[in-house]
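Fold it.
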Amino acid sequence: MSYKILKTEKLPHSQLKIEAEIEAKEFMSFWPKALKYLSENAKLDGFRPGKVPENVLISKIGEMGVLEETAEMAVAEYYSKIIIGEKISAIGRPQITLTKLAKDNPLNFTIVTAIAPEFELPEYKKIAKEVMAKEESVEVTEKEYDEFIQAIRKSRAPHVHAEGEEHKDDEHVELPEVTDEFVRALGDFENIEDFNKKARENLQQEKIYRSKEKLRLETLDKLVEKTEIDLPEVLIESELNKLQSQFEENLAGMNIPMDEYFKRINKTAEEVRAEWRPEAEKRAKIQLIINKIALKEKLEPAAEDIKKETAHLLAQYKDADPRRLELYVETMLVNDKVFQFLEEQK
């Protein structure tokens, strides 16, 4: 092995500090590559790019300049070898510091990288079972259906004009009668009977969805509450960036530039991100918990399902990065599998 791990040290917030060394011979094998790169990018009078003699190049940028480029190339190649070889679950960009740099000597450096945090899952099956026991009835009551019909009739009521203003007066406006003609005007309905059947089905589906969402959110809240995770900053920043992107999209939909919004609320971007931080931390925790449950219970989406859904989304978002979209799809499908698993614990 051409590198040596001198020391590893766990730091707060799921970070790892690695002190490493690359053997002198291996380190110096990058010297010609560094010279070639520097020669190709040097702008020296009288020399074409890539044709600058070694002695001229060193006299202009100094031996230390060449050594630093050599070290950069060596570390760039050996970082991934160290991470894979030592089975380190690194995430995000590392901070690398050279600690010993001299020609024909071993290269010493430190790596500080965020790592996937280690944590214990709570009794997720028990938590899910307790929450799912609260499942409510999803039958549509006559009262709910009557309120739905009344809302539709009010939305189709004629306008009353008073003092030049348009408004609806619930007490005095005569609401339209629900007839075959009335329901046909609402959509693809044959008659009142057909409308009632489809409307009740839709209301029930909506009620099922809302009930499921409520229980899912409660389950997640309890899992987060009972799980201690020392989150790496890189994961929190990633979630903050997602929140900001979504917020910017929402504002763009209302034709409000981000900087104008900050002026209106009299806050800076940094202040708003600080307010979002608890939500970002919660989201990061949730995804880590879901991923760990998926791993433990071997809940993997089928490769063909990932491929099919990615292709479907690529057809809609043609400018999207296929690899990033595939990762997004895989995450969503894993999440669905975990939710289904938790819902089955009732």
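The longest strand covers residues 90-100.
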